[in-house]
Design brief:
This protein is 24% helix and 16% strand. The longest helix is centred in the N-terminal third of the chain and has 19 residues.
Length: 149
């Protein structure tokens, strides 16, 4: 059976696309997911993109944000990763917050850099490496790039 160069190139492209879909979920590659916003819904939680959803262990997801059907009551929680206050735990979960504490962020004692997650996703700014973008921003950094210096 003889294949043309065009069909072999097409086959290679398709294989590359399939491998790319699963590359980020393999061990040690989750830190290579981009911050590009193309939301997907998996297990009732909205992820920033498909790579981040796969890295959390989700296999099945749909494109777009999850629909949040949360109770109307107000029982505020603070997201320790973003420092944002949500109406209740349901809204926080729908927004993708994974770690929350009861009460408004200003009431919980977590302010400034203390509200930042300790998730290791280094960024470089002014020749200094910060643990993640939140730690850089809370120290007044205006511009940074992903990765260690």
């Amino acid at each position: 059976m003889k294949f043309s160069q065009a069909s072999l190139l097409l086959l290679a492209l398709l294989l590359a696309l399939v491998l790319q879909q699963y590359y980020c979920a393999s061990a040690g590659h989750c830190n290579r997911c981009t911050r590009r916003y193309r939301p997907v819904c998996a297990s009732g939680r909205t992820f920033r993109n498909a790579c981040l959803a796969r890295c959390s262990g989700s296999v099945n997801f749909v494109r777009g944000r999850c629909l949040c059907l949360c109770p109307p009551g107000s029982n505020p929680v603070c997201s320790s990763s973003s420092g944002r206050t949500y109406r209740n735990a349901c809204y926080a979960k729908c927004a993708g917050a994974t770690e929350t504490t009861p009460g408004r962020c200003s009431d919980s004692g977590k302010t400034g850099c203390a509200s930042c997650s300790n998730w290791l996703r280094p960024v470089c700014a002014n020749g200094k490496t910060y643990r993640n973008f939140c730690h850089a921003l809370c120290r007044g950094v205006k511009s940074y790039h992903h990765g260690a210096c």
